[in-house]
Amino acid sequence: MRGGVSLRYGVLVLLAVMVLVPFAGIILAALHPPGSQLNGLSIPDQWSWENFTLAWERGNMTALMRSSLLIAAFVVPLSVVLATLAGYGLAILRVWGHRTLSFGFVMGLTLPMELIVVALYFNLREVGLTNSYVGIILAEAALFMPFGVYWMQTHFSSVPEELVEAARIDGARDLVVLARVLVPISWPAITTLSVLYLMWSWNQFMLVLVMMQDPDRRTAPSGLGLFVGEHTTDIPLLAAACLIVIAPIVVVYLLFQRSFVSGITQGAIKG
Prior knowledge:
- The chain has about 270 residues and is mostly helical.
- It has a domain at about 70-220 and about 245-270: MetI-like (MetI-like fold, Orthogonal Bundle).
- The radius of gyration is 22 Å and the shape is globular.
- The protein contains 13 helices and no strands.
- The mean pLDDT is about 85.
- This is Carbohydrate ABC transporter permease.
């Protein structure tokens, strides 16, 4: 028994080291003087913070961060609301054809971005939504929908039917049941889905690269791709730019860590 526990902890420690060592390497690289040549994981002789200022200015991070925040600010609430309504309709209301619709959303999980991004570009171009925030927001919300609907449908399927029936006996309509009964007990699942949506929206690269031709209106990850091409040899500057781009996601995860883990664990136990 003790051997099994020790083995599990050993595996977790090993996985943590595999994740944290490269991350520590990026931090140390960003603190080297600009233009330094690095050989693996090394501690800088002179700590330099100017790489972050240079990366912010040369990478036009103000405009890129603004675009990323603007897109995520619309994508996350829109996607979460639609996924919650769809999951409620499929799991609780059992709308006509709910089995077929559920299967369709599951099949949507198998579609890779590379397969549909070109066709999506031509479709949005026909309605004038390329090179615009609206097009990016609608495209991301649609692409994230299969997982969100599946996630919320699975969660609502685990809710005791007696709870819903009791609310209906008291005269509550469908939307009232959702808003006042199910949503308050579903915050872990909703919070987890929101954090996942924020991560996916923030890290979206290919979609933005194809849909948005204006460099000043691209998001931070897509702008980082161009920044890497321009400063290939300056490793400290690239490391600082990478840390700037991933910092908001790290902060969000740390703020919602308990709710995120609670939602993941709850889904695993109920599943």
